[in-house]
């Protein structure tokens, strides 16, 4: 049974080898080639320390720097640690040489795909529309963009971005909305002293007077309605991707020249809430209230610096890309505060 690889293969699918003959993008690989990746995740201060968001920027920077130093030194325990072995299958297509990179979980084969053409790697984490949830009863879908990375690059090169779109199928529920309806008028009388104008004669004077006020009283009643919820997200991957340096790296005792690529991932989610009712005015008011609540939440996220001014959560990554191997040998992922969340390292290639 075959399925597509999960989204994590954005990092994993690049662990493929190449020959040095990259001018015509000929990858010297055989069916059955294997790569082993070490994957470690970490719980950063931003997500586990309740005091973190109340710190000033300098204190946050100090906490993140200390945390990252602990990760580098091995003193911060990983939240999870695992090794994944990927097997490569090669085929020749009209688009170019294609490499399907597979990983088996509980008897199910997951695949991502790499096509090499004209000195460029085209990396597809999944092929086609990806269903969310169990195949027999999906709850939504994702369309993932294709990443492009040249095999020849230099420090300062800017790499193209790509995007993902996800959407959950609408869910509906019967709910009760509140509506105010007129009940009756009430009268209140009070005796006061001071300046006043007689409402009947229009005369103004100073002294004792009686104030009588009336107001309408409204009751709340239930109105039947149908609520529809739909979640969607938009991600911009590889934003501001640039080659920032070069470094020698070692895999299986062999040294390679790696190019350091730093980039950002922007993600924005939206929960759209709408209402249907026989009472159109009530449904319209409920729609407006839901939209106002969504906007208020987005403004709060921007104010607390959890998103940028466009409403996107910004995550960061840094990878060591080896043209000779056709992929990344190390990828570091960071949360919005700069804390290391994931380390993916190629530890074996055969």
Q: What's the layout of helices and strands?
A:
Elements: E1 2-4, H1 9-12, E2 34-41, H2 45-48, H3 57-73, E3 80-93, E4 96-105, E5 108-117, E6 120-124, E7 130-132, E8 140-144, E9 147-150, E10 162-168, E11 171-197, E12 204-251, E13 254-276, H4 280-303, E14 313-322, E15 327-334, E16 340-349
Parallel strand pairs: 1-5
Antiparallel strand pairs: 2-3, 2-16, 3-4, 4-5, 5-6, 6-9, 7-8, 8-10, 10-12, 11-12, 12-13, 13-14, 14-15, 15-16
Task: Note down, in words, how this protein is organized.
This protein is mainly β. The chain is built from four helices and 16 strands. It has a domain at 2-42 and 78-168 and 232-277 and 286-349: YmcC-like fold (Beta Barrel). It has a 16-stranded mixed beta sheet that branches. Helix content is 14%, strand content 56%. The chain has helices at 9-12, 45-48, 57-73, 280-303; strands at residues 2-4, 34-41, 80-93, 96-105, 108-117, 120-124, 130-132, 140-144, 147-150, 162-168, 171-197, 204-251, 254-276, 313-322, 327-334, 340-349.
């Amino acid at each position: 049974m075959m399925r597509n690889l999960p989204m994590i293969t954005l990092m994993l699918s690049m662990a493929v080898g190449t020959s040095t003959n990259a001018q015509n993008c000929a990858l010297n690989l055989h069916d059955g080639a294997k790569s082993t990746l070490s994957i470690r995740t970490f719980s950063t201060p931003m997500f586990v320390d309740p005091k973190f968001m109340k710190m000033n920027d300098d204190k946050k920077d100090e906490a993140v720097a200390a945390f990252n130093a602990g990760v580098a030194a091995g003193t911060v325990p990983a939240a999870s640690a695992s090794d994944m072995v990927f097997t490569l299958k090669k085929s020749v297509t009209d688009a170019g040489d294609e490499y399907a990179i597979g990983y088996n979980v509980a008897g199910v084969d997951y695949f991502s795909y790499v096509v090499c053409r004209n000195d460029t790697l085209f990396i597809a984490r999944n092929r086609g529309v990806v269903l969310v949830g169990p195949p027999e009863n999906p709850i939504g879908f994702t369309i993932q963009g294709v990443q492009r990375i040249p095999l020849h690059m230099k420090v300062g090169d800017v790499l193209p971005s790509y995007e993902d779109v996800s959407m959950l199928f609408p869910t509906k529920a019967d709910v009760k909305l509140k509506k105010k309806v007129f009940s009756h008028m009430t009268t209140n009388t009070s005796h006061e002293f001071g300046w006043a104008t007689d409402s009947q004669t229009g005369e103004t004077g100073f002294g004792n007077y009686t104030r009588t006020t009336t107001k309408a009283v409204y009751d709340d009643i239930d109105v039947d309605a149908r609520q529809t919820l739909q979640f969607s997200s938009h991600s911009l991957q590889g934003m501001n991707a640039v080659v920032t340096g070069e470094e020698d790296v070692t895999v299986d005792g062999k040294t390679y020249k790696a190019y350091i690529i730093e980039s950002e991932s922007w993600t924005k989610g939206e929960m759209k809430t709408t209402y249907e009712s026989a009472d159109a005015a009530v449904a319209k008011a409920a729609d407006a209230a839901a939209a106002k609540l969504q906007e208020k939440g987005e403004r709060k996220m921007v104010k607390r610096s959890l998103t940028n001014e466009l409403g996107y959560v910004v995550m960061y990554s840094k990878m060591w890309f080896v043209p000779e191997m056709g992929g990344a040998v190390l990828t570091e992922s960071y949360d919005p505060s700069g804390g290391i969340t994931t380390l993916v390292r190629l530890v074996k290639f055969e």
